[in-house]
Design a protein that fits this description.
This protein is α/β, with parallel strands linked by helices and 181 residues long. It has a single domain, classed as Thiamin diphosphate (ThDP)-binding fold, Pyr/PP domains (Rossmann fold). Strands 2-3-1-4 form a 4-stranded mixed beta sheet. The chain is globular, with a radius of gyration of 18 Å.
């Protein structure tokens, strides 16, 4: 019998500990928020904990390949877990949204009333390197976030002369800026 799928890669002990910490943080976050804010829609990460491991692995792999910035667009499920954990968004910013307070100054004419619509840009240290991760604010119409993230990625490529905008023939899409949806 021929095996079609390859076996899984071995995960070293240190990485297993990191993964366990990521998942424990996610579960602890969900439990805390469900107790402190029981009436708030929070689209917890239950069932999506592996998403954090995916992101941390992505950050690790891309920094080793020289990517400088990752632009993310994601749905609500698990977004607050990613914000509070891997993306280092201050929990107070999320709690303000849960309490109905805007992240904008009082005199601004803007509306953003749902915590899962938050976006953040953070410098994440991985393997002794830093990658800038930008999670796009997403509206209730989730499909709108994808073209915005693609446009932001394209503008970064243009600004920093990557891919089609580079005079270097060896420059290709994703060398410096990566779009993940």
């Amino acid at each position: 019998m021929q095996r079609i799928e390859s076996g899984s890669d071995a995960i070293d002990k240190d990485r297993r500990i990191e993964i366990a910490k990521e998942m424990l943080h996610s579960q602890t976050w969900d439990k805390f928020v469900s107790v402190k804010f029981p009436a708030v829609k929070r689209y917890c990460g239950e069932g999506a904990e592996s998403l954090l491991t995916f992101f941390s692995t992505l950050f690790r792999l891309t920094t080793s390949e020289g990517v400088q910035q990752i632009i993310l667009a994601m749905a609500h499920r698990g977004k607050l877990n990613a914000l509070s954990g891997l993306l280092q968004c201050p929990p107070v910013k999320i709690f303000r949204k849960f309490n109905g307070q805007p992240e904008f100054p009082d005199d601004s004419r803007s509306v953003c009333d749902i915590a899962t619509h938050l976006g953040v840009s953070s410098d994440i240290a991985v393997n002794g390197k830093t990658v800038r991760v930008s999670l796009i604010n997403n509206p209730s119409h989730l499909e709108c976030a994808n073209p915005v993230s693609m446009g932001k990625t394209r503008s970064k490529q243009l600004q920093y002369r990557e891919s089609d905008y580079s005079e270097d023939a060896s420059s290709s899409m994703g060398d410096k800026f990566l779009n993940v949806q």
